[in-house]
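User: Here's a chain of 225 residues. Predict its fold as tokens.
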Amino acid sequence: MSTYLLKVPEKMHTLQDDLESIFWALLYVIMRYIAYDIDIDTRLDDIQHVFFQNQPQHARNHDRGGAGKLDIVDTPILYPRLSNNTPLDDLMWSFLTIIQDFHEYMKRIFKDVSRIRHGHDEISIPDALKTASLKFNEEFDRLDIRNYDKILAIFATALQQDTWPENDKAFDHYTVVAQGKRKLQVNEDTENERSTSKRSKTNEQPTRSAQELNHSEGSRMRRTR
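Assistant: Prediction complete.
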């Protein structure tokens, strides 16, 4: 799903949201299945942060998200570079640049939305978005994400390259690491249960009452006389 649909669920769904979502679908496949230079635990953390981040909005009865995706767009150094797959890396980098331009446009749109709604809570977010979008029509027309043409072009350019890697079978890094962490946690839980059980059994050893001790002491004294 596109970043701004996650951040502002009230926003109208547009073609640009669909085009952006293609990038995130591809990035998910890359981060989960394709090898690149990053340790496996960091990869798992990145997947969780980019694709499963959300913030409950109880007053609005829905969640908001998109912060992890914004981190990728606003801080490109976080984007995983694919040194072993140049065509795919070039494709994704070109796609990311298009999305960055779109996000800069959306930031200006939402800044104007805030201005329009300031002191006028009766104006809905969708209505304010429509008004703000009209103000930035010319800027929108210059965006590469305004239609499919530029997106198809970067795919065509990448597919024409003859340097695609061979024998690069997909490997599910996410499931392997997640299962490994679950197994480790199960082992730790089992060991904790065993330790707790041992302590419980030790504490449950029967203690002799004062009457029993007195009786035992009396018997011992009689035997020594």
